[in-house]
Design brief:
single chain; alpha/beta; Rossmann fold; three-stranded parallel sheet; three-stranded antiparallel sheet; 10 strands; globular; binds glutamic acid; Glutamyl-Q tRNA(Asp) synthetase; ATP-binding; ligase; glutamate-tRNA ligase activity
């Protein structure tokens, strides 16, 4: 099978040194394996995505010396495909509508009997307020968020959940998933938001499968989310790619670079006269 990987930035801000590291690592791995490097635009969150950022992404990556097959896959064009997958999960009885706001979840999760609010790879762990006792029947609603009933989803698995990791998680973890910890440690993740058609977790899994990605190369900040992706692959009968989570580029204080961190934007270095080789050197490549 041809080695295929992708870099999937969200056009919600400038690319910084951390993105350059991720894109160059994926690109170099594909080159070494005589494979394919795809660029994908993760613009599922249309409220935050901007065409100007997308143009800047293309420009910065070309400047870094990267190339990729066109046309580029853009999530905003693929909502019907994501809906198909949601319908399948709905028909399996694994989804339920949720109308809780963030504030509702925070309040319910921090109620005295619940103890402190717990965070998982999908943010605050959902306390289950809207979870029905039996799977909902009838048409899949489109006017509310849809959550995956984690316990019910895990109960359908007939084989252990594992994946192959050639990098490592932030604490040296490899591809071992503890499904028994997922209801408490991950919770009922959102797979469709009312304003967004599909969540990151659902769209990334469908896109990787449709593009026949064999190697997902990305930062360790997404390591914990991988258990959700592998679970969705199993439920939807999709292949699980190999994963390579790499370390994060940090600033001088050891803090992870953020999209807002304009000071380390590739654009800023370019304006100051840096070359692509300087960028590679700065990030240790
Ligand atoms: N779009 C995601 C991000 O900007 C990356 C998704 C992925 O590589 O799985 O962090």
């Amino acid at each position: 099978m041809t080695f295929s990987t992708r870099f999937a930035p969200s056009p919600t801000g400038p690319l910084h040194l951390g993105h350059a590291f991720s894109a160059l690592t994926a690109h170099d791995m594909a080159l070494a394996a005589r494979g394919v490097f795809y660029l994908r635009i993760d613009d599922i969150d249309q409220s935050r995505s901007r065409p100007a950022w997308e143009t800047q992404i293309f420009d910065d990556l070309h400047w870094l010396g990267l190339s990729w097959p066109t046309p580029v896959l853009r999530q905003s064009n693929r909502l019907p495909r994501y809906r198909e997958a949601l319908l399948r999960l709905w028909d399996m009885g694994l989804l339920y509508p949720c109308r809780c706001t963030r504030a509702d979840i925070r309040a319910a999760a921090s109620a005295p009997q619940e103890g402190a609010c717990l965070h998982g790879p999908d943010g605050l762990i959902y306390p289950g307020t809207c979870r029905p006792d039996a799977p909902p029947t009838g048409q899949m609603p489109t006017d509310s968020a849809l959550r995956l009933d984690m316990a019910r989803a895990l109960a359908r698995l007939s084989a252990p959940l594992t994946f192959t990791e050639s990098g490592e998680g932030p604490n040296g973890e490899t591809g071992t998933i503890m499904p028994q910890n997922m209801p408490q440690g991950v919770g009922d993740v959102v797979l469709a938001r009312r304003d967004m058609g599909a969540s990151y977790h659902l769209s990334v899994v469908i896109d990787d499968a449709d593009q026949a990605i064999t190697h997902v190369v990305r930062g360790q900040d997404l390591f914990e989310a991988t258990q959700i992706h592998v679970l969705l692959q199993r439920l939807l009968a999709l292949p699980t790619p190999l994963y390579h989570h790499h370390g994060l580029i940090r600033d001088a204080d050891g803090k992870r670079l953020a999209k807002r961190d304009d000071a380390r934007a590739i654009k800023t270095y370019r304006t100051e006269g840096a070359t692509p080789t300087d960028i590679r050197r700065m990030i240790g490549l």
